[in-house]
Amino acid sequence: MNHKMVNLCDDSLLIASKMKNFSKWVRDELLKVKAIQEAVLQETLWFRCPACWKSFKEQAGSQVCLNGDCGYSKELELIE
Ligand SMILES: [Zn+2]
To answer: How far is residue 76's CA from residue 46's CA, in Å, rounded to a whole number?
Structure first.
């Protein structure tokens, strides 16, 4: 195991001191963040924008350019 200092306010210190295993709770919460990030990555496909060739994502049936100056976006046709 590794150590990392955390700063707690009075209220969060009170909550942490009442927890049976604060370190385990912190580890579990951090691993949830990792799991969410991995799930998001799997649902998001990254491409190059056809208009400006910068990073670009395809998600939930639409393509959106992340370059604010470009503004390219396209709704994808659903294939049945
Ligand atoms: Zn673009």
So the answer is: 15
Distance 39 CA to ligand 1 centre (A): 25
SS3 label, residue 63: strand
For the stretch 47-74, pLDDT in tens is: 777 788 777 777 667 777 877 788 888 8
Q: Which pLDDT tens digit goes with each residue over 13-25? A: 999 999 999 999 9
Q: Cα separation of 71 and 28, whole Å? A: 39
Q: How far is the CA of 36 from the centre of ligand 1 (A)?
A: 27
From ligand 1's centre to the CA of 48, what distance in Å?
8
Looking at the chain, how many residues does it have? Answer: 80
Element (H, E) at 59: strand 55-59
